[in-house]
Write a structure and sequence with these properties.
The protein is mostly helical. The chain has a domain of 30 residues. It is 68% helix and 0% strand. It is built from 3 helices and no strands. The protein is elongated.
Length: 69
């Protein structure tokens, strides 16, 4: 139920990071078109479930789980 919402949040955060120059090419020119921005937001949101699972596995490996403690 929350997967589409989380995907939308991920897409907005990544686009904000790109526009702020934190990630990506920081040449000072914002020449991305609306179609490019929409395609990037779609891809980030679409693959967000897999990324969330990967980040969860990494956190469990680094910090452990409650059952192991």
């Amino acid at each position: 139920m929350f997967v589409p919402l989380i995907g939308g949040v991920y897409a907005c955060v990544v686009l904000t990071l790109f526009d702020g120059g934190v990630i990506g090419v920081a040449d000072g020119a914002h020449s991305r078109s609306m179609a490019t921005t929409a395609a990037l937001a779609f891809l980030v949101g679409y693959f967000s479930d897999g990324v969330s699972g990967l980040l969860s596995n990494i956190a469990n490996a680094v910090f452990g789980t409650l059952e192991k403690k």
